[in-house]
Amino acid sequence: MALQVINLGRNVPRDLPRPDATQARLGTRVTGDFGAYLFDELAGSARKDATFTFPILAGIREVDDNDLTPVAWYAYRPDRPANLPLLEATVSYVVEWADRNCFVSERGRRGVQFDANRLTTDTLSLLAVANIPINAAWMVSPGLTWAQTNR
Description:
Strand content: over 45%
Helix content: under 10%
Oligomer: single chain
Distance between the termini: 47 Å
């Protein structure tokens, strides 16, 4: 049985609220295995264009959003048959910027622009872990992590 909505609200038929979005992603990964030393380098990018029409008079928001994400991972595994490396470290940096524009909704169509913002953020994250075997069944994995975000 389908859910039937009885009262949508007087602005819904007039403003036709809806999301519209397109997104494109691109990424790559390179792995290096040099005996006891392992490396992973990753990079990704995304582009998003989104529009949302709200069921109110002042309500069309357009956002053009972009981000870049490089990641580097290093591991030291002197005992090759071990499941986990003895030491590992990761650094990642994410930078994102977006242009956000707001327009008056004129019966669901874009009207006069009343707001515009340039939003930026970046985050740097660091991780270091030591995987210390205690015996065949137990392992201790102390780690340190740090992150900083700027907006």
